[in-house]
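Internal ticket #5521
Category: modeling
Description: The requester needs a full-assembly model to guide mutagenesis choices. All entity lines are attached below as received. Residue total reported by intake: 513.
Assigned to: D.W.
Attached entities:
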Amino acid sequence: MSYILAKSKDNAILEAGECGGAVTSIFKYLLDAGIVDGVLALHPEEDIYDGVPTFVTDSEDLISTAGSYHCAPTMVGDIITKYFSDKKIAVAVKPCDIRSIEELIKRHKIQRENIYTIGLNCGGTVSPMTGRKMIELFYDINPDDVVSEEIDKGQFIVELADGSEKGVKIHDLEKQGYGRRDNCQRCDVKIPRKANIACGNWGAEDGWTFIEINDEKGQELIDGAKSAGVLETKNPSKQSVEARSKVENIMIKMSKKVQESKFDDAEDMDAWKRCIGCYACRDICPICWCHENCELNKSYFKDELNIPPEPISFQGVRLSHMSFSCVDCGQCDDVCPMDIPISLIFDKLQKKYYNRTGYIAGVSDDIKPPLYSPDKIEL
Amino acid sequence: MSDDIKIVGLLCNWCCYGGADTAGTARMQYPPNIRIIRVMCSGRINPSMIFKAFEDGADGVFVGGCHIGDCHYDAGNYKWSRRTKIVQDIIEEFGIEKERFRFEWISASEGEKFQKTMNEFQKTLSKLGPLELK
C-alpha cells in the first residue's frame, strides 16, 4: 500500500474531470492500450441527477463520463454479473460497489482477473429527487440550472453555469430530513481499499488526485499510465496524508453516531405493513443473484393473496439468505415503491453478524460466506 | 390454555428422533403439544423453515440434532449451529421472543433429556402465551 498524487496530462480531461482527472486518464490508458474491452462508468443523460451506467468502448467517449455525480446513486455489482461477466472491464467503484463485487467474487459470479477496479472515495450519495427538492428549498436555485455538484468540507456545494458556487452544511440538510441517503449516513466504509486503487480529493493539493494504491494490480496500472504518458505523479506531503486520514476518521465517527440512533428504530418498525410484495427489493439486490431459483418463488412461500406478506416469511427469508453479506448499498430503499427503509434492518443484522464473527461484508477477505462453509466451527 | 400451545419440532433422524422414540417406548410422560417432523439431519434445516412454521401458527419451534462431533454426516450439526445464531437475530427483529425458538443436542439414548426439554419448553411457551405476529 502506498500513496501518490496524480494529475492528467490531457487538458480536456483536466477541464472536465474532478480534481486532476486521474480516474478518466487511467481509463483512457486502459482502453487505448487494449488491456480492457470497455469501461463501465456513469454518464449523465438528461442532467446531473440522471447518471446512467454506460459501457464505453471508445476512449474518445470517456470525456462524457468525467466528473462526480453524487445525485445518481447506482450499483454496478449486479450489472457486471448480468452483462459483463465474460468481458474484461475497468470500472469506477464507490465503496459499496466494490464490496458487492467482492461478495459476488466469493459467489463465483465475477472473475477477479477480468476486472480492474478504480475506487472513488465516497462521503455519501444523494437520491435525485431529494437532491432536486433540497436545492430548491435550501439554495434558492432552480435545480435545472445546476451544472455540477460536489461534497467538500462537510458541505454540499452546487455550481451554476456562470461559475458561481453555493454550499450548505450537510449536517443542517440532514437535520431537516434531506441530504444524503439514509444508508450513506450510516455507512462506515468511506475508502474502497479492496479496489486496485482508491482515488479522491481528500487531502490532495488543488488540481491533483490523491491515490491510494491497494495492490500489485493497482501499482501496475499507475506505472502503465505513467509510461504511456497520460498521467503525471508526485509523492504527497506528510500533511496531505494526515489530512486525508483525518477526513476519513471524522466521517466514520459521524456514521457510527447515526448507526447508534437509527438501529434502535428498526425493532418496532411497522413500515412492513405497507409492503405490496412486488419483489423489487430482491430483484435489485446485488448480492441476491439466484432469482430464477429463489425460495420466495416456491409454492410454499408464494402467497399472492396475502398482502402485505408476513414480514418474517418474506424479508425474514431474504435476511437469512444474505443479510450477513449486506453491503448497505441502499438500492432496496431506492426501488421500494412504498418507501420502506428496508436496508436498515439488513445493515443492522450485518452489524450483529460482525459482532459475532468479525466478518464485514465485502471488506473481510479471509473467509467465505460463513454460513456455507463446511468447517467444523461453532459461532 | 397451555394445551393450545403448538410446538413444531424438527428432529434429526439419527439422534433426537431416536431420543423421542426412546422416551416414548419407555413411557416417559411429556406434554403432547409437539408436532414432530423428522428430517435426515439438522444440517438440512434452513432458517426459512423456522420462519414458515411461525408464520403458519406455531407458538414455538424446537430443533433437535446430534451432539456436536456425533453428526451422522460428519458436520451437519455444525452448519445448523451457525444458522441458529442468524435465526435468533432475525426473529427478534420481527417481534418474536427468542425463547420461542429452541434447539438442543439430544442423542438417541437420551429419552430423559428429551422429556425434560419438552417439559421446560412447554412451560416457557405457556408463560409467553400464543404467538401474535405483528
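Resolution: model delivered.
Comment from assignee: The beta strands of chain B are 7-12, 34-39, 60-65, 101-105.
Ticket closed.
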